[in-house]
Amino acid sequence: PKTLRDLADARHIHIGAAVNLDALQHDHDYSRVLSDEFNAVTPETAMKFDALQPQPGDYTFQQADAFVNYAHQHGMVPRGHTLVWYSALPPWLQNGSYSRDQLMYILKDYITKVVTHYKGQINVWDVVNEAVDDDTGQLSDSIWLRGIGPDYIDMAFRWAHEANPQAQLFYNDYGTEWSSKKFDGVYSLLQGLIQRGVPINGVGMQMHMHTQFYPDNATVLQNMQRFADLGLKIDITEMDVLTSETKVDMPTTLKIQADIYGTVVKDCLQIKVCQSIVFWGFTDRYTWVHSDLHRDSDQPLIFDKDYRHKPAYDAIVQAL
Ligand code: XIL
Question: Can you give the residue ranges of the GH10 domain (predicted)?
Fold first, then answer.
């Protein structure tokens, strides 16, 4: 039977998963299923600030390089994730006190070194991640906003572009599939970037979703269309569909989950500028929903813990 990768290749789109480096290095089934089923990969943690610059001026690329090498050995497209975020910062940065000029230096140095290190190997970057507040749509608090000011976003894109003019540069966030202050805030941020001539190519819609509360599909499509009308590409960057607050039985929940996955994949295929769909993991054996969100019995992904296809997998096959 054809894999998701076969189907995606035939459609000339990317279908991918976030990679847990520890699982990749220790679980043979994990690495086999990953390279059989996907043609794109995003590092779940290996390319965040705390991983790449744990001490001031001390860059450690080993794990991130291992990720990129795995991708290239298997003919998969790696995504750079993520250059500027409020989270995953090393203690020295989190606890230090820096002037505006110092923070600008730190950020420019980081973006320049990392993007340059992967020039020719990583052609798409999530430059700024989750910079908009859910409730107000304003820029959300971070050391970057506090220390540099709202123009840190423009600077980040310009520095990334200078370091690799060929790279596709994305703004990435969650919650933009709803009709909400969050969507409006992200939309106006993107509009401003474009008006100011900031080099941005696309918007990542993370799509962390839930079987119990999910948006009307007309809204999802409408929001995608509004982003597309700004002239941006749209990538689905971190999709998963949480199950743990479900009020119905598990077979029904997994059917709802399958419908949500299938619908989002179909939406993406319908919008010309949507050419990449990445899930935030692929097996319920390893997911941030367990480790970070502490929903221990959640089953958010498309393979079960034993690497069997779930209904969501079949729905994606149907959609592709
Ligand atoms: C998460 C990882 O999955 C976890 O392993 C890590 O501990 C924290 O970060 N939005 C993002 C991702 O953009 O980078 C986050 O990844 C999940 C939410």
Answer: 1-319
Question: Among 268, 266, 152, which residue's Cα sits nearest to residue 203?
Answer: 268
**Candidates 37, 44, 177, 238; catalytic one:** 238
Active-site annotation holds for 177 = no
The total of other beta-carbon atoms located within 10 Å of residue 166's CB is 8
Are 177 and 223 a contacting pair, CB within 8 Å? yes
Q: Return the closest-CA partner of residue 47 out of 18, 15, 26.
A: 18
Per-residue pLDDT tens for 165-210?
Answer: 999 999 999 999 999 999 999 999 999 999 999 999 999 999 999 9
* Interface predicted TM-score (ipTM): 0.99
Number of Cβ atoms within 10 Å of the Cβ of 1: 5
Q: Angle between the 250-270 and 217-229 helix axes, to the nearest 10 degrees?
A: 30
For 82, left (φ over 0), alpha (ψ -120 to 50), or beta? beta
Closest atom of ligand 1 to 82 CA is: 14
Ligand 1 pocket residue status of 240, Cβ below 6 Å: no
User: Beta-strand (E) ranges in 208-255?
Assistant: 208-210, 233-242
Whether residue 37 lies in the annotated active site: no
Ligand 1 pocket, 292 CB below 6 A?
yes
Q: Is 44 in the pocket of ligand 1 (CB under 6 A)?
A: yes
Cα 70 to Cα 143: distance, rounded to the nearest angstrom: 33
Q: Which two tokens stand for residue 169?
A: 């540069």
Q: Is 192 helix (H, G, I), strand (E, B) or coil?
A: helix
Tell me the pLDDT tens digit for each residue of 215-251.
999 999 999 999 999 999 999 999 999 999 899 999 9
Domain map (residue ranges) of the chain:
4-319
